[in-house]
Amino acid sequence: MAATFLLIPPTNRAQDSSWSFPFQEYWDMARELNVLVVDDDPIDQRLISSALRKCSDTINIRIADGGVEALDSFSREGVPDLVVTDIKMPGIDGHQLVDLIRGTPKYCCVPVVAYSTSMDEQDIRSAYMEGANAYIVKPSSQANYIEVGRAIIDFWTKTAELPRLN
Fold first, then answer.
1. CA 26, CA 112: separation in Å to the nearest integer?
2. 4-aspartylphosphate modification sites (predicted)?
3. By the 8 A CB rule, do 36 and 64 touch?
4. What is the pTM of this model?
5. Which of 74, 134, 152, 165 has a CA-to-CA distance to 143 between 20 and 30 Å?
6. How many domains does the chain have?
7. Residue 7, domain member (yes or no)
8. Residue 37 forms part of a structural domain
């Protein structure tokens, strides 16, 4: 088995304007955040998408109408960097979706934001126990969605600066 190494000699980048990172396109791809919004309500889909677009100008938003479509999207369009899901949906609901994401090795590290109209402590606790990274009670202000979105994007950009390999 052969190994390949890339050696980059030291250079003073301030004096050498021709220097660029050799795999810049991969780093640029890693900075684009792919978000999957999962909700059966088109109004909520638009509200969440609009708020997320205000968080970053390098965001790609995909929409799924439910849990089944979300899982199909994972295999069809690739694993998203973030899933934002409603809890109460027909078919595979948000609780089941979070559980399936966390139970699948290829998907288990994807951050998940759950949201619902329920303010019941048990529902919120269940979402976190299943593996949600955040929980938002709706209706919520667009500012709140933006705040949560920015926090997750900030986390992502500070901890995941390696190119995706999927």
1. 24
2. 86
3. yes
4. 0.72
5. 74
6. 1
7. no
8. yes
